[in-house]
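BUG: 3D viewer hangs when loading the predicted structure for this chain

Environment: internal workstation, default settings.
Expected: structure renders.
Actual: progress bar stalls at 90%.

Input used:
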Amino acid sequence: MPVVTIEGYLGSGYQVIGRKVAEKLKIDFVDRVILSEIAKEMDTHLGEIIDLEKKPEEKSLVSRLSDRLLSALEKSALAGGGADPFFGQGIENLLSQPYKDFPHSEELTENLDFTKAIKKVIKEIASEGSVLILGRGASGVLRNDINALKVGIYCDEEIRVKKYAERYSISFDESRKKIVEYDVGKKNYYLNVFQKQPLDPSIFNMIFNSELLSEEEIIDDICENAEKYLNKRKNG
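Structure tokens produced before the viewer hung:
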């Protein structure tokens, strides 16, 4: 299977859609929670010898991907450096924190370590293949990767506010506050790192409107296109 990335706004349903697509395609699912676990695993084993004799199928997704990232760090001579963009700034926090807490300086040069780290992590995970990466700017990082199917999920803000309020049994005002905070954080992150809006059409292979299409329709279409995309790459 090709790599699939899914990006969307809070309340659009992109998180549920992403997980169900991964289940249907029978590929690994990576979101910010998984990335945090990978970071913890890497931190635990940094500087230790990776057990290369253990068969890959015996390892968990977290262990397997953390091994790959550690190997990439060692090969690039970053693992032992004090200025390491991964561990110098705390990779666990960097990979798991919400968009609103990402560095958003107007000067992109001030965030080069952060940008370098997030891109390296996403690209290394994508190189594993057969994986769905949810959010984290993966679509932007892999926008020029012909083996990655980039999917965006759009939904009008008012609809998202209503859905989020109903899902978590909170007031519309509280829901709107969370949605706006999330939207601003994601927008700043994308503009800072990629100089593009989060759902810029130039980043994606396809964008779905979750207000007009049901969750099932979107999932089916993504899976169908993922298989077509894989065959196209193989035959191309």
